[in-house]
């Protein structure tokens, strides 16, 4: 299991469009991946799960992966969140 904390950089947070980009990136990996906000944990490959967390800009989240490519999965997703979901990083 590999875990990293990250601050959501973009102002609108993980609403539908950035969440979709996040899920597309998460689906590139074989590992099971979750997002945790406070005490809630959801599947990072589930749009409804991510949207249910209500993640806004400036929110700290934890990205957790478990599997063969867990470290590269978490590092890639942290990089995506830190980029603010800018076009050149998709």
From TrEMBL:
In what residue span(s) does the HPr domain sit? 1-88
- What does the UniProt entry say about where the protein is found? Cytoplasm
Superkingdom? Bacteria
Molecular-function GO terms, alphabetical: transferase activity
* Coarse class of the protein's main subcellular location: cytoplasm
Keyword Transferase (UniProt): yes
Q: What is this protein called?
A: Phosphocarrier protein HPr
Ranges annotated as spanning the membrane: 47-65
Instruction: Kindly give the InterPro entries that the UniProt entry links to this protein.
Output: HPr (IPR050399), HPr-like (IPR000032), HPr-like_sf (IPR035895), PTS_HPr_His_P_site (IPR001020), PTS_HPr_Ser_P_site (IPR002114)
Alphabetical UniProt keywords? Cytoplasm, Membrane, Phosphotransferase system, Sugar transport, Transferase, Transmembrane, Transmembrane helix, Transport
A GO term from the CC aspect: cytoplasm
Q: Does the keyword Transport apply?
A: yes
Any single biological process term in GO: phosphoenolpyruvate-dependent sugar phosphotransferase system
Question: Tell me, what does this protein do in biology?
Answer: General (non sugar-specific) component of the phosphoenolpyruvate-dependent sugar phosphotransferase system (sugar PTS). This major carbohydrate active-transport system catalyzes the phosphorylation of incoming sugar substrates concomitantly with their translocation across the cell membrane. The phosphoryl group from phosphoenolpyruvate (PEP) is transferred to the phosphoryl carrier protein HPr by enzyme I. Phospho-HPr then transfers it to the PTS EIIA domain.
The protein's matches in PROSITE patterns, at most eight in alphabetical order, are given as: PTS_HPR_DOM, PTS_HPR_HIS, PTS_HPR_SER
